[in-house]
Amino acid sequence: DALLNKPRFSLLADVVARYFVLGVLLVASGSGIYWYVVGNPAWFSIALSVLVVSCPCALSLATPVAYTVAVAAMRARGVVINSGACFERLAQVSRIVFDKTGTLTRGRFRVEEIISLGDMPESALLDLAAVLEQGSRHPLALAFERPITREVGEVNVVPGAGVSGTVEGEHYRLGKVDFATDQVIPVPAGSGTWVLLAGKRPLGWFRLSDEVRPEAKAVIEALSRTLPVSMFTGDVSDEAMRLGHLVGIQEIHAGLTPADKCMRLEQYQLRGDRVLMIGDGVNDTVAMGVADVSLAISPVDIMVQEA
Ligand code: ADP
Ligand code: MG
């Protein structure tokens, strides 16, 4: 697709080249005819010289060659391009937006702490969470992976909020506090992402920790030298601030739903910014569609890099 969707500069070169070729042919044959009529025996060499000297090869070959080489060079670095226009757009970018979970962090969560709010033991809370998270592809869900012992009814995944489902006749919700319950309860202190499991009442908190990608700080530092960098996240603001501080991002927008992320991007664009969105493709694909250029980090790439 990338090779078929030629970038604008390449198309322009094609158009110019077409008229250029016609022009060159006319000028070459014109000068040949002129010198023939004048009686110069070298008329043919003259026409040929004009043709050779003004060959439009550079014009019609250089851009596609540069472009093809760039695509190949990026592929060698593990970057797959899906539209030729991305090079032109990348050159115009005036702001970079990072997603947090799975992008600045590895997206490999571990359950660090469990706080039971009722009489349900920790292992039962974990079991329930595992059952509910079966249907989710969010990196958070992997932290709960364990052998499933219970049957679950229909599981509903709400992007940027959590999961809900029916287990043995009871309806449960697991995720952000305001998604899990209507009750107003404070999020416990402690670094990490806190998710709440609730049935009719809140049942327990899980504290999940994720690792910051080791290269994140250096990358942000390098990028911030030329462009403003911001972070969008669906996570609550405490954890977002902590991570932003760690990697050196000042402009942080936390607690965003996937739709909020799009709205924020459009606000930047209304102000005249061209935005590059870097995400993991989980819960931020819509924002990636809105951004002028997007880059998705694939878990497969990460494995290849480490191998
Ligand atoms: P980010 O923008 O940082 O990538 P998301 O928008 O994917 O984060 O998710 C925002 C928040 O929603 C998470 O921090 C978590 O609290 C909650 N959440 C999302 N998906 C799930 C899930 N499958 N299970 C539990 N909680 C979830
Ligand atoms: Mg994410």
Number of strands: 11
Bound molecules: adenosine-5'-diphosphate, magnesium ion
Structural class: alpha/beta
Radius of gyration, CA atoms, in whole angstroms: 29 Å
pLDDT below 50 for ≥5 consecutive residues: which ranges?
Answer: 301-307
Range of helix content:
40-55%
The number of helical segments is: 13
Q: In this structure, how is the largest beta sheet organized?
A: 6 strands, antiparallel
Along the chain, the helix and strand elements come as: HHHHEHEHHEEEHEEHEHEHEHEH
If you average the pLDDT, what whole number results? Answer: 87
Q: Give the N-terminus to C-terminus distance in angstroms.
A: 29 Å
Spatial ordering of strands, largest sheet = 2-7-6-5-4-3
Shape: elongated
How would you describe the oligomerization state of the chains in this entry? Answer: single chain
User: What is the percentage of strand-forming residues?
Assistant: 15-25%
Please characterize this protein's 3D structure.
The protein has a 6-stranded antiparallel β-sheet with strand order 2-7-6-5-4-3. It is 46% helix and 20% strand. The longest helix has 31 residues, at 8-38. A hairpin with a 3-residue loop joins strand 3 and strand 4. By secondary structure, the chain is an alpha/beta fold. It contains 13 helices and 11 strands.
